[in-house]
Amino acid sequence: MSGPTGLTRRLVLDRAVLLAPVLGLHRRGAGDPTHRVLGDVHLRTTRTPVGPALLKVVANGGEVAARAWGEGAAWVLDQLPRLVGEEDDVDGFVPVHPVLVEAVRRYGHYRVGRTDAVYEAMAPACLEQVVTGKEAFRAWHLLVTEFGEPGPGPATDPASAAYGMRIPPTPAVWARVPSWTFLAAGVEERRSRTLVRTAGRAAALERTLALGGAEADRALRSLPGVGPWTSAEVRQRAHGDADAWSIGDYHVGKNITYALTGEALDDAAATELLEPYRGHRFRVQALLGLMGGVARRPRRAPRMTLPTHTPYATRGRS
Question: Membrane spanning segments where (predicted)?
């Protein structure tokens, strides 16, 4: 276990590290009790194979400085290169569309990171099925605050910027959350059932880290309630799968097609457009996201309203 001052690690890489998009992918809204951003400082809690950890990371160009606390401190520091994308392979990615050529010119040093924590990505992905981000983030905040543990080290110090951060619940704890508590957090039975069922298969989920992208996808989708979208959201984060684009998302396919063609089209069109980038389709999604307004379709309609529980069984992504 790390001491009061934690353990430290310094990486010097041959590229600048873009911490905001890499770690921001794991943050579930501004109120996420497992993540906090203070200027250039990123704080993240996680549950490692050897125990909980709190990680503090700062990047300056290619230099990454980290400090970690808790039983999993040494583990997260050893895993840090993978978290910031050092295992991501860009070979074979040849941008053709002008907006992607420009994205690579600006952000060619972006890499897809991985957490090596599958169920930790699965639980929030289940909460995010078929609802707006606002509703899902609220549920995540409420449930993690109630059922997660206080983070280690400075997370228990009222004078620290990390004060109040929580460790995500274990799969065993998720499996015991009462149905009425899920409902009180706005999570109807369809989503809570998938979350609880996958919690019971958490050990098998972690074994998918040893599989290739297509095999991991098949294994994840073999579980009831886990469809293409949920599998992709998990593989983006836990496996660092640069091909796992968010098929089935309400916005992503439209945004990709608009950025590449000037028209907001459906997922079938997005799949066809992305085919030349197979192996790197999530990389395309992420790079277009980094381009911001240059690649984002204009809004011509009101934002989606929060749905009621009634239509969940017939709507959207899984």
Answer: none
